[in-house]
Amino acid sequence: MVASIFGxxxxxxxxxxxxENATFYADLxxxxxxxxxxxxxxxxxKKQVQRxxxxxxxxxxxxxxxxxxxxxxxxxxxxxxxxxLVKSKWLEEGRDGLRTVVDLNSEAxxxxxxxxxxxxxxxxxxxxxxxxxxxxxxxxxxxxxSTSENLTWAGAHAERFMTNLRAIVGAMRKVEQSMKGQSSxxxxxxxxxxxxxxDNYIADFRKLRGENSPYRxxxxxxxxxxxxxxxxxxxxxLSSAFVREGRAPSLEEAEDNIIxxxxxxxxxxxxxDSHIDMIxxxxxxxxxxxxxxxxxxxRMGDDQTGQFIDAAKRLGRSKLTSKCKxxxxxxxxxxxxxxxxxxxxxxxxxRKIPAPVIARKRMKDPALVAYEAAKRHYIDRTRVNPDRxxxxxDVKMGKEISIRASDIKIGSLDEFFIFERLxxxxxxxxxxxxxxxxxxxxxxxxNEWISCSDFEIKKRAETLEISQ
Length: 468
Hints:
The protein contains 21 helices and six strands. It is mainly alpha-helical. It folds into three domains: 2-117, Arc Repressor Mutant, subunit A; 122-287, no CATH class; 371-467, no CATH class.
């Protein structure tokens, strides 16, 4: 299970992010990848890498904040950091003649690129994922032989899009729970502005719901993918390309991979409405909560507080006793209602019996009746059944044992309807007309009615014996 998730990555490559100096190492490997090794066409010497690490530590004043990790106190700090990166398989040493050269580990470089994409928010570009899938699918439809690999990438981008949507749902639930857990209004507003307004998930989702967002292409994308799944010729071309380019050992496995990728894309973009509804529902709950907070704050403003304090001071300076009743006007409803329940509620009047309505049957148009009758007559006339075939053969063959189709004279349209089905009559009626055999001949048949292969109609021996 671990090998299938991390592949060829070394466990030590993750260990530097679990120490007390994890922030330092995260910034350092990003600096090495983007500044030191980024444009280097050749491998860099060991001294150059150590000098770059030293410059990084001095420029950002990291040396004072580095904890006493094992190995960092042995000699200069930049040497110890370099040894730690080599030991954790982030850096690889090699020999170029008498020189020691250093390069980033290939698997570590891919891991770092994925982490940088997460940091920059590229993996949450919802509109970009939709546009990327559409572009790849369009390229496959235009040139399936040369761009078949785009189909695999399109399926991967579709899965990433669904992962991002699920991350949105989880992030918004986390924001809602964070707001519910605050015991003060200031804490609730702070959680709203820091975790909701400035959150990259929410900002990107706002762009996704925009009028000009690539998200509007999702319906066209689903239709295109379903049309590709029903196109047998396109699937065959893509399967051949998969086998030719070495992405599948056989046509059957290639076809399965293609159908799986197309099914993934179709299912993802067909089932995202439930996620969108859940996000919208959570979003509305959060906004209602903030709206209620604003209403509460507007009622408890400084002007209202000053009025309460002034009223209390005036009441204290008055000559009223503590037991004196003071009439106060208030804008709230009394505990006891002013009206009884009967005067506030009006019962529904009894339902009246509906008046009878005379239903009149609408007569059919005589032209439509005549058309339907003519249509039924035509269907009955053109329908071929075993009895009509037997009557036709009895008339045309007479007492002959066999007859060629080219020797049969067609005299009417009714006979033509039967004649054109003789060659496939065994397929139409497999359990009937066993008294005759139909044999296809290599010579062609052509007359004023039909052009097809000639065939021979022959009565079976058992049928002849019974008739004799």
